[in-house]
Write a structure and sequence with these properties.
Layout lengths: L5 E7 L2 E9 L5 E5 L12 H7 L3 E5 L17 H14 L5 E6 L1 H12 L4 E7 L6 H8 L1 H6 L1 H5 L5 H20 L7 H12 L3 H17 L20 E6 L21 E6 L6 H4 L1 H14 L2
Parallel strand pairs: 3-4, 3-5, 5-6, 6-7, 7-8
Antiparallel strand pairs: 1-2, 2-4
Helix pairs in contact: 2-3, 7-8
């Protein structure tokens, strides 16, 4: 990480969140929320660009991801993630924020914006769409079922042993499968593994999937009722960035998403990028984000 990045602890949601911070503390807040398998370092390319543009960027290690504490109440459901986002905005001393979420961070961002549109001024997400299309695809699309096999595997008791085997080689396979052709730096993978080696992180990360998909697997299937919480209109200007070659979530699951954004949704499909689009094509993503924020400022 650049030397200008500061690290500190912020108390929110009855948790001590370790956050990375960059930029003018008087500037508009951009809260950057990472996904799986990832850490706050996910936004190492975006933070300098946003800070240079006058924003105050804060990227927390999400609940349970070391060095942030495990959830004391054991909650890793999507509602808890959204509550964390809103609590962090307040704890950082802001009335509202731009929220930039990737993967699980996108889920948290959607929930925060849907619940409190007055607290989320603008929304930028990547890799995970909003709405029920993705959950429908788990039932109707073999292609998406094949991509999402790990979500079902994570419901089993052997998941922790499998993911941690051979010094978390599973994480390298995820990055390679989900972002074909991405040549990450060895130190970036080491930062990820260092987080997952810490006590509690693996259990928390898998807990996100068990808390969200577990209940879906135990209820009768009704395509119209899948993920009802993700069908609430979001009244916040938004942009969705998705890698065209995403090996985790197919771009077709974004179809119709704009209907749930009355204040506008700009969808950007990025060629030559996969699931970790903001890390693979950082200059392009930074340009898209800054242009969007300027257009709705």
């Amino acid at each position: 990480m650049p030397s200008q990045v500061k690290q500190r602890v912020v108390r929110a949601s009855n948790l001590n969140f370790t956050v990375l911070e960059m930029g003018d503390s008087e500037g508009p807040l951009v809260l950057c929320l990472h996904g799986f398998p990832d850490t706050a370092h996910s936004f190492r390319h975006q933070m300098p660009a946003l800070a240079a543009a006058g924003f105050h960027c804060v990227a927390p290690f999400m609940r349970g991801y070391s060095p942030t504490e495990p959830a004391p109440d054991g909650r890793y459901d999507s509602a808890a993630l959204s509550e964390d986002a809103l609590a962090l905005i307040a704890a950082l001393g802001y009335k509202d924020a731009i929220v930039f979420g990737h993967d699980w961070g996108a889920v948290a961002a959607y929930g925060a914006a849907a619940a409190s549109p007055d607290r989320v001024s603008r929304l930028v997400t990547s890799a995970v769409p909003y709405g029920s299309k993705f959950f429908e695809a788990l039932v109707t699309s073999y292609a998406q079922q094949r991509r999402s096999w790990y979500m079902f595997f994570f419901q089993t008791a052997i998941a922790e042993a499998a993911v941690s085997f051979n010094d978390f080689a599973f994480l390298e396979k995820c990055w390679a499968d989900w972002s074909p052709g991405w040549k990450w730096a060895p130190e970036d993978m080491e930062a990820l593994k260092r987080c997952f080696r810490a006590k509690g992180t693996l259990e928390a990360a898998i807990g996100y999937y068990r808390a969200t998909l577990g209940p879906v697997l135990s209820m009768p299937v009704d395509l119209k009722m899948l993920a009802p919480a993700m069908n609430i209109p979001i009244n916040v200007p938004a942009m969705m960035i998705h890698g065209r070659d995403d090996g985790c979530i197919g771009a077709e699951t974004l179809d119709g998403m704009e209907k749930l954004f009355p204040k506008g949704l700009k969808i950007e499909l990025v060629p030559g990028a996969g699931h970790f689009v903001h890390q693979e094509r950082p200059a392009h993503v930074n340009e898209l984000v800054l242009k969007f924020l300027k257009s709705v400022s």
